[in-house]
Amino acid sequence: MTTDNFVRQAGISRRYFLQVTGAGLVTATALGVTGLKARAEAYGKFTWISPRGTLEVLDDYPYWAAKKAGYFDGLDTDMQPGPSDGTATVKFVDVGQADMGFPSPGVFSFAIQNGMKLKSVFHMGARDTFSIAFRKGEGSNDLKKLEGKTILLGSAAWQSITDPLLAAQGVDIKKVKYVEAGWPTWGTALAGGQGDAALSWEGLRAEWIAKGLDFEYWLGVKNSKLPANTFVVRSADLEDPDKKAFLEKYLRGWAMGLEFGYQNPRAAVEAVFEQFPTLAKNLGPELGTTSILQQINVFRGDMDKRGGWGSHDMASWQGFFDEIHKIGQITNPVKAEDVCTNDLIPAANTFDKAKVKADADGVKLSEGFAALDVEKIKAHLFDSAVK
């Protein structure tokens, strides 16, 4: 992959975004979901769409753990990978080809900028999951040193993630270049000597190690106050009492899956591995558990200061919206309370935590997982941070 394929100074234009939108909608037929008229009448099968173009990752462990444990209680649910275009997760929800997306705050901001009537209802990423990967010995905790350098991305749309992350650290983003090195090859491109750094995130760090990609990282989870990925739905769905009640029940399943994973991370990994045997073979118990522990740290955040799983920290979100307005990623100011809501959080967290803990504790682990020392893994979660 060379910089001829995609090099762009900071800033993705509206024209480019709309071109990507057109491409994404062509791909939408692959989902096989019901038409817009049926969606307007009722959810039917409720479709969640990934931002990554794949489901064979550990990131969605709460869903698979909850599904295995029966926490969705008869709801007709579906998970779809969607296209690898980073903006597909909001576009499909906007036009009714999916019911819930999982965008980064940056991609969510593009949805807002382009008039999509979406609202964040369940904030998964209480801490900033995103990081900057460097080849060993080339990293720095001063991201200003990236000025004049090239950052590799898996999708051009990820620039909306990286720009505010860098700007919040004092980087002049006009002096940074980006290369779209493709999904899932952008990490391999960095290891191969292309670019100077690459966007990464918690959980993926462990998956990259399994692929022989051993980097050092500036960690957002340690250094950034920005929010991370969140669940979004159409704003109109929140005005429909039946759909709102469905969403509360659906999100309760996710919240129970998050609690299950917190109580027994190894059992949650096994639930994902049962769903995706190839992922299990590629990662194995130790790296799988490392990945999920990285993500649990992001998803849980400081629970003593939160209103439960999925609760938005409006101050963090407001800081993000103020930052992206300052750098021109959005043209008009955004008030966090207008596009994020905690209205569904109390109902989503109304479940028997003791029962979920008992369920999690009662799982009989396979030999490989049972042999793992979880506390030892936790003690080394951030060993790859830039020193």
Automatic annotation (TrEMBL):
Q: Which domain of life is it from?
A: Bacteria
Name one process (GO BP) from the record: thiamine biosynthetic process
Ordered alphabetically, the record's keywords are: Iron, Metal-binding, Pyridoxal phosphate, Thiamine biosynthesis, Transferase
The protein's GO terms of the molecular function aspect are: metal ion binding; transferase activity
What is its pathway?
Answer: Cofactor biosynthesis; thiamine diphosphate biosynthesis
Q: Which reaction does it catalyse?
A: N(6)-(pyridoxal phosphate)-L-lysyl-[4-amino-5-hydroxymethyl-2-methylpyrimidine phosphate synthase] + L-histidyl-[4-amino-5-hydroxymethyl-2-methylpyrimidine phosphate synthase] + 2 Fe(3+) + 4 H2O = L-lysyl-[4-amino-5-hydroxymethyl-2-methylpyrimidine phosphate synthase] + (2S)-2-amino-5-hydroxy-4-oxopentanoyl-[4-amino-5-hydroxymethyl-2-methylpyrimidine phosphate synthase] + 4-amino-2-methyl-5-(phosphooxymethyl)pyrimidine + 3-oxopropanoate + 2 Fe(2+) + 2 H(+)
- Location of the SsuA/THI5-like domain: 62-266
Q: Does the keyword Metal-binding apply?
A: yes
- What does it do? Responsible for the formation of the pyrimidine heterocycle in the thiamine biosynthesis pathway. Catalyzes the formation of hydroxymethylpyrimidine phosphate (HMP-P) from histidine and pyridoxal phosphate (PLP). The protein uses PLP and the active site histidine to form HMP-P, generating an inactive enzyme. The enzyme can only undergo a single turnover, which suggests it is a suicide enzyme.
Q: Subunit structure, per the record?
A: Homodimer.
Identify its protein family.
Belongs to the NMT1/THI5 family.
According to UniProt, the name of this protein is Thiamine pyrimidine synthase
Q: Which organism is it from?
A: Mesorhizobium erdmanii
